[in-house]
Amino acid sequence: MSSTNAGNSGQWEEHAEKKEHELLERWPWILPLATGIFLGAAVFEMTPEALEKAGSQAWFWLIGGLLIFFLAKDGLDYIGQHGLAWVATLGIWLHSFLEGAVTASSYGVTLVTGLLVSAGMIFHLIPEVGAVIALLTAAGVSFRQALIRNGITWAILILGFVLVFLFLPNLSETTLGIGLALGAGGFLYLAYISQQEIRWEVWRSILFIVIGAAIMALFRLF
User: Fold this and answer.
1) Is 110 helix (H, G, I), strand (E, B) or coil?
2) Cα gap 205→36, rounded to integer Å
């Protein structure tokens, strides 16, 4: 790594640590809650749907997604590109694109099914996006930049919907399942790195992790 990249990386890490300290001082429950939301989304939402669509091979792709995100963060950190912030961003972008694709495919069943899936998708994506904003802020990204990335998230969701609805209406269930499995691996990694950033009491952190996971489990029921 060049001295310029090393210097930029050092400045970013110092800035990130300051932002993280400010966040955890004001709202120490945010990162535990975000951890639970990522974990719950992967365990209760994405993995069951991936298994339903792709079968047992979904486990292979889930592990693959976990490894891809792990290597992506380390690689981005190595070249001075702030891996934590970017893997969080890429994770929610991948997830939102897949949500758009799955929602579009549901309209092939019936119009009512499509509308119900669309409503459910919008409601359960809200806490996931909120969790990403919290993680981005802890990683040193400004709140304004986090909101901009959030706006891009919704645009990517629409893109996924339009591509499948208009151009890939016969996209196979297996392909969707593989994509969801990769996304689940990414969300498991986001849960892992969120948990690493927690600086709160253990029992309180566990409580909010459980609350976050329970929120996503409830969304799965509806």
Assistant:
1) coil
2) 10
Which pLDDT score is estimated for 17? 53
Rounded Cα distance between 181 and 122, Å, is 20
For residue 102, give both structure tokens: 């799955």
Enumerate residues 6+ apart whose C-beta is below 8 A from 109. Answer: none
**For residue 190, with 0-12 CB atoms within 10 Å meaning exposed, 13-18 middle and 19 or more buried, which class applies?**
buried
**pTM (predicted TM-score):** 0.81
Confidence category of residue 114, pLDDT binned at 50, 70, 90: confident
Torsion sign (Cα): 212, 213, 219, 221: negative
List Cβ<8 Å contacts ≥24 apart for 147-150: 149/89, 149/92
Which of 107-116's residues contact partners 24+ apart within 8 Å by CB, and which partners? 107/165, 108/169
